[in-house]
Amino acid sequence: MGRVSQIIRESITELIDESRCIYCGEITNEDLRKWFGKGGSGGTTKGGWDRYGSDGQKLGKCGGEKEGGAYAACLSAEKAKKLGPKGRATFVNRKRRDQKKAGDSKKGKQRSKGKAPVMSKTGA
Question: Helix, strand, coil shares of the chain as percentages rounded to 5?
Fold first, then answer.
């Protein structure tokens, strides 16, 4: 029983350490599921973000694309609505161009893994 409780204690300590703020060391309560939403095949209908293709059409929930495909850009429902179909298409093409400049033209084939993400202005 002693060994099992030690393993559990170590696991809990590791989880707590992973939840600490990198700046102040305080324990945080952050969760990306809150940011991207949860549920169905699209974020705008159930909260969260959706990914859009170069034609400005919704392709599904953000993060659902397959490795090796062209990058699709993710937008919140609010931002996507502001941009409209043409604005979304322009943004996706801008994002793809920026990704290509950074050497990350295909999903899952990144040369910049572990570095800051490529940011692109939405124009809205």
Answer: 40, 15, 45
pTM (predicted TM-score):
0.56
At 102, which amino acid appears?
A: A
pLDDT averaged over the chain?
75
Burial string for 36-75 (b: 16+ CB within 10 Å, else e) reads: bbeeeebbbeeebbbbbbbebebbbbbeebeeeeebbbbb
What mean pLDDT do residues 85-103 have?
87
Q: Could you read off the pLDDT of 16-26 as tens digits, one per residue?
A: 777 777 777 78
H or E element at residue 74 = strand 73-76
77 CB-near residues (< 8 Å, 6+ apart): 43, 44, 47, 49, 50
